[in-house]
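Figure S4 source data
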Amino acid sequence: MMKILKLNAISPVADEVFKGYEYSESVPDPDGIMLRSFAMHEYPLGESLLAVARAGAGVNNIPVEKCTEQGIVVFNTPGANANAVKELVLCELFLGGRKIVDGANWAQTLKGKENISKLVEKGKGQFVGQEITGKKLGVIGLGAIGAMVANAALALGMEVLGYDPFLSVKSAWMIDRRVEFTADLSNVFRSCDFITVHVPLTPDTRGMFNRKTIETCKDGVVVINNSRGELVVSEDMVQAVESGKVSRYITDFPDETLLGKENILCVPHLGASTPEAEDNCAYMAAKQLTDYLENGNIVNSVNYPAVSMPRNSAARVCVHHKNIKEILSKILAVVSSQGINVANMQDQSKGEYAYLMLDLDDVPSDACLSLIRGIAGVLRVRKI
């Protein structure tokens, strides 16, 4: 029986997927790990561990590079929480244009006073805002969430300018043809009244909103960040808000610099905090994990390429290896030397690493697998 360790509370929908597995918070020597926000960087990666599945999109809490070096596949669930985040962004568009939170908080101070209706009429002028209809929204990152936000904003009467140098074909098909595209990020900063960002945190995107880039924005721009706090240099954003360059900054990632500042609205990481999103993420992560453990198929991995094949042979051998010259021919030579025919195969690479699936007409011996493991550049060999 394969074992799955649960490092966070996971939606019960995963329980059904893991029937037939040992699945709990205290499983020793697990084959797989399910988690949400648990910080794994100091967590020991045992020899039995084959895969880690994150019920969510971000994997900053997982030592991805270390996992890759050990042939451990890291899965995430892109798009599973997209609708929940999209709805939060739409809410924040309205909150960015209208001083709804400020006005509601002020209204609470009127409790116990006389002539509340008169006080409301007298005081409401301080909370005048702007409509979003007819304004231009810049969407940085047009993956599952960005595409949904772009389409919804169009339906609300906004103009939409999208930027994504890595736009996938799948996402492109999802996006309304009325969305305007730009290959130059500076066009988004320069021309948009509202900007929402939906990109992962990488060395290239860290601090993308900083003093220099913010200075190029339209005066009074509203900035919305539901991706990662580190995409924005908080100190620079506070200065921009205080100067009026940014009329409002709304983020799902509060920090000490941002809290308590006027015209900065910090939301307590509510992007995917709906039962629907949690169910979708848990189910998707569990299905991907079990498909890999049982069949070797990789779908939605952040560190290994997508490889998937139907099973119709006597045995399947999965090999994680470095993406180097002649290694594939060496592996196949070992298989051939054992008199075993390859019925089907796929070998795909992702950067410096690659993944090979071999469907064989005969079950390979342990000696055959040991020979493959002995090839320089081979990281892990598994017979299913």
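Figure S5 source data
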Amino acid sequence: MSLKNQFIQSKLQHVTTSIFSVMSGLAIKENAINLSQGFPDFESDITLIKLVNNAMINGKNQYAPMPGIFSLRSAIAEKMGHLYNTSYNPETEITITAGATQAIFTVIAATIKKGDEVLIFKPAYDSYEPTIELFGGKTIAVQLNPEDFKIDWQIVKSLITEKTKMLIINTPHNPSGRVLSKQDMLQLEGILKDTNILLLSDEVYEHIIFDGEKHQSAALFPALRERTFITASFGKTFHNTGWKVGYCLAPKELMNEFRKVHQFNVFSVNHPTQVALAEYLKSPNNYLELGNFYQQKRDLFLSLIKDSKFEFIPSKGTYFQLLNFKNITSESDYDFAIRLTKEQKIASIPISVFNQNNLDTKVLRFCFAKTDVTLKQAADILCAI
């Protein structure tokens, strides 16, 4: 018996390095324009950076309280009240996390046990399924229609069993850019009403939404709010994904369970960054103007590639755009993404890795959270293909 097998048996035998690491690593190696991983190539607001620096200079360099500093939790509560006319107690219902992915991990760790079923919608963010598996749960995947990514709620209802413990939604949706409507949320509310099923609502792109659409937070729907963990990200909102600061919202009883895990999983999140964000949130325009900011980038990117061979439906939210390449090649999306990176020097994400059974619909995901210069360079490459 090898030492490898003698000392450890993998709990995630089928998990490999994430596609984000693969494609970003290849982009660096090939010196390619990186439109794969979801991060901006422009700086965060210098005002926010100075606030972090000031917090460090003023001695906010030791452990923050386990749930997060109270001023930041209060600012989040005020934001939720302003945007969604709902009340979260900053003392007992809001916890600051080391990014939204940590919040998602902690929610699942605190609630899912062996044999529990969790419904997710594919294509799905790649952290959901391995985390469910890690804690003994079983993923029940609902493959979305690749044409419009709409949810068939009758199918969802038919998959609910006595073992169903949780349902995970993501709106605006990564990678499709689709936004759940009020009618979607009402149908979900009707399905979950009178059950003990929990909801994990991944709302990291809540402020990046276009064309006059409104974000339908789970917090807006009483029968959802009472059973929901909402996860959110400051990194996505304020262009600083490397700071890894987010938060989780939940009713007191649910948050109690969340914090039982959080205190040992992370305990304390970056203190000076929390101080800065608490101050920065006092100006609502810092997040209210985000939709218009990214809509301009989406519109620029799509206008620049409108004469290319790629087909697309404009994204309704997030800073991702799907492009269909069926008129270009019959290659798999993975092979085409690799070739584009190596030969054309532009990196993207193949959607099949997020789909049920790696369904390949000849679609790549491109991130448009880039400077106008980068988007124009990228468009020149895509139009030449």
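The chain has 16 helices and twelve strands. The two ends are 51 Å apart (CA to CA).
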